[in-house]
From TrEMBL:
Name of the featured protein: ABC transporter permease
Superkingdom per UniProt: Bacteria
Localization terms from the record: Cell membrane
Bilayer topology annotation: Multi-pass membrane protein
Residues annotated as transmembrane: 20-39, 279-302, 334-356, 368-387
Organism: Thalassomonas actiniarum
Cellular component terms (Gene Ontology): plasma membrane
GO MF term (any one): transmembrane transporter activity
Length: 404
């Protein structure tokens, strides 16, 4: 096979060849980055959040009655809600909570050691720390693991309007930022006195794993109007039964409430990544369409230009070229186009990745993924040009030499 002749042939039709090569490069870039996005989303959904996502039930609700303006009334209703929910068969623990983990926004406060307020300048993540209000059952409801000290209990509940500094529990990564390897128990922060440190869970999926900062404060019943979620830890296999009874149980205590959603922590995680999953599905669909269009373009390119070269092919057949030689010529020409498209694709893959990274979190392309995508392109091109190649190889020499 004369490679120099092939290159010369492509240069004679450089415009159409260039368009096909550009299309191949763009398709390659779309394929690689679509797969990266899909793999990133799948990894995010399967990541360990530190919680038993399938067995944690969440209830989002809000009162609609003016009676709830009376805090004592509000507190009594919430207390009765929790009592009735805890009695449901299959419920291990239940608590109210002001906000949910696995969410970037919410109740955010600055945190620093009382003797070192400059910490917020050296670690800017300390300026927006999630603060969770709950009761003594929140640790069990979320399945938190204690690393140091103790969790909050009934004695940590402050009286309404008390000036006493609260006891708090902080996350492992927050403790590491504030005190490093030194003990944190008994230390004073601007948010309260530390009595415990819990193992990190995913409080904010958009932040690094070592920046999952959180503070837990047992003052929920003082600020009960922020209690818009109930959290239930459910026995394995009992989720469906408990889920069906939750709304009726709450409304039986006091019906003037809107229950917006009853959902598991796993569904909450999936909902957080819903846009990423939708974007990944869209990109994969576009990827399939681009592969189809590129295959059609390769077929049309081969069919058109081979029909223009019948006389040349006929001469080669008359001079002794076999069918397989013609077949190899056509397929090699396609392989050359694919190879040039993949070389240009190296640039377009990186360019697309950098461009998309400005708007979404996207991993960098790996060489193995790039090679696999190139293999798919070569196979698609081979399939697309096989029929024109076989048709061309069957041209009789006598008919071909008479072609004008």
């Amino acid at each position: 096979m004369n490679l120099k002749a092939l290159v010369k042939s492509l240069l004679l039709r450089k415009f159409t060849s260039g368009l096909l090569i550009l299309q191949l490069a763009i398709t390659l870039a779309l394929v690689v980055n679509s797969v990266i996005l899909a793999l990133d989303t799948r990894e995010s959904l399967s990541r360990d959040t530190g919680m038993d996502n399938e067995n944690i039930l969440l209830v989002s609700l809000h009162p609609t009655s003016g009676n709830y303006r009376d805090f004592n009334y509000y507190r009594s209703v919430v207390a009765e809600d929790l009592s009735q929910l805890a009695r449901l068969p299959g419920v291990k623990s239940v608590s109210a909570m002001n906000q949910l983990p696995l969410r970037p926004r919410g109740a955010l406060r600055n945190v620093h050691d009382l003797d070192n307020p400059e910490q917020e300048r050296t670690d800017t993540y300390l300026q927006d720390v999630k603060v969770f209000f709950g009761n003594e059952n929140l640790a069990d409801a979320l399945g938190l693991s204690l690393l140091e000290g103790r969790y909050l209990n009934q004695s940590d509940q402050r009286d309404f309007g008390s000036d006493e500094r609260p006891n708090i529990v902080i996350s492992q990564s927050l403790k590491q930022s504030l005190y490093g390897d030194n003990p944190a128990i008994g230390q004073e922060t601007n948010r309260g006195r530390i009595v415990g440190v819990i193992r990190d869970i995913t409080f904010n999926p958009t932040l690094p794993e070592d920046k999952q900062y959180a503070v837990f404060d047992n003052t929920l019943m003082e600020y009960v109007y922020v209690a818009r979620y109930y959290v239930l830890s459910v026995e394995p296999g009992q989720m469906s039964s408990v889920r069906n009874q939750v709304s009726d149980t709450i409304l039986a205590v006091q019906p003037e409430r809107d229950i917006f959603r009853v959902f598991t922590m796993a569904e909450h995680l999936k909902r957080f990544y819903r846009d990423d999953q939708g974007l990944a599905d869209l990109f994969l669909l576009l990827c399939g369409l681009m592969l189809l269009v590129t295959a059609i373009s390769s077929y049309a390119y081969a069919q058109f230009h081979i029909s223009r070269q019948k006389k040349y092919i006929g001469i080669r057949r008359a001079l002794g070229a076999r069918k397989r030689d013609i077949l190899l010529y056509v397929l090699t020409e396609n392989a050359l186009n694919c190879g040039l498209g993949c070389l240009l694709g190296m640039v377009t893959v990186i360019g697309f990745n950098v461009l998309l990274s400005q708007y979404i979190d996207l991993s960098k392309p790996e060489p193995l993924l790039f090679l696999l995508a190139c293999g798919i392109m070569f196979i698609a091109g081979l399939v697309a040009t096989w029929l024109p190649a076989v048709s061309t190889s069957n041209i009789p020499p006598v008919i071909a030499t008479r072609t004008v």
